[in-house]
Amino acid sequence: MTSCVEEVDRWWRVMAVVPLSLRVASGASTSTSLDWPRHLAARRTAARSRRALRARTRADAGAGTDDVLAHIVRTIRSAKAAGSDPDFFELLGVQVGTDPEDIKKSYRERARVCHPDVAGSEGHEACVVLNEAYATLMDDELREAYQVERTFGSLGFQGSGDALRDLYDILGDTDIGRALRRTPYTGEPLSKVVGRDHFACKIETDEQAAKAVFVDELSCVGCERCFRSNPAVFRMEGTGRARVFGQWLTDEESIQIAIDTCPVDCIHWVPKEQLAPLEYVMQHVLRDRAVFGKSPGDVFAKTATFIAAIQKATETENNL
Asked: What's the number of CA atoms in the CB half-sphere (13 Å) around residue 11?
């Protein structure tokens, strides 16, 4: 009986000879069929290359979605740690006054990224808040009430949409009024503020607790002296100008030394209650004007107008 090895060997010999005779008779290439392992290897290499390309393409597409998910989760958890609610406009990536269809489109894009089947437990956490944000911003009454709460909540004011409309009427088509329609004023400082019971807080007296440090970025010349002197409190922005990163993360003496290093006196101590409106006006009004080549104006004068408008709208609502 012929062994299995002999049968296989005979089969290979037949496969090597028959195709060769056929090719010779037809005038085709005389390479033997034993070349097929090299052809097969080439096809396998090409297939692996195609699979690798598809994998890289999927990875590149997924990188952006991972960033979106990470940003949403970070926003939610930061707000929770601060004892506040996340900004619904920021979560959905839209501005005040965005068309409902655009809100819906943005929500669907984020919902696909954050779906629990795709993103797991973090996706579930994000989806719960995204759904709430979407339901709020798509309903006219809920959206108006939300904007009122975000604008006046920090003042201890509870009112209706009339107060917000009064504020818009007072400010009119000014740069502050237009900024409010793009980005809601939350009443929260942009710089990091930690409570007095936090280990990083260096507040020692009530007088210190009543004030904060503020950088007039439009006057800043980007010398970096404050940052080099006190990097815990001051940071350099991408614009090359200084900005306060965190309030009272070092003692008052260290902060004052950094202030004194400024050659143009653009760093100021301000009342704590003025910090949030000052930073809002600086970031969303005056810097935008400077970018577009317009005269930015005085941040303190602009902020005084803003605070007066909020107080007037609040008083009008409370007197009704």
From this structure: 7
Supply the CATH number for residue 109's domain. Answer: 1.10.287.110
β partners of residue 247: 193
CA distance 243 to 266: 10
How crowded is the C-beta side of 113, counted as CA atoms within 13 Å? 23
Sequence-distant (6+) residues with CB within 8 A of 48 are none
Q: Partners of 59 in the beta sheet?
A: none
- Residue 252 CA, chain-centre distance (Å), reads 32
- In angstroms, how far is CA 116 from the centroid of its own chain? 21
| pTM strictly above 0.70 | no
Report the C-alpha gap between 197 and 240 in whole angstroms. 33
Instruction: Compare 252 and 9 and report the one with higher pLDDT.
Output: 252
Counting DSSP H helices and E strands in the chain, the numbers are 14, 6
Q: Are strands 242-244 and 234-236 parallel, antiparallel or unpaired?
A: antiparallel
CA angle 104, 185, 130 (to 5 degrees): 30
The rounded distance, in Å, linking the Cα atoms of 203 and 208 is 6
| Mean pLDDT in residue range 215-233 | 93
Q: What is the pLDDT of residues 207-221, one digit of tens each?
A: 999 999 999 988 899
Q: How many domains does the chain have?
A: 3
Based on the domain organization, do 42 and 26 belong to the same domain? yes
Looking at residue 259, its amino acid is I
- Report the C-alpha gap between 71 and 113 in whole angstroms: 12
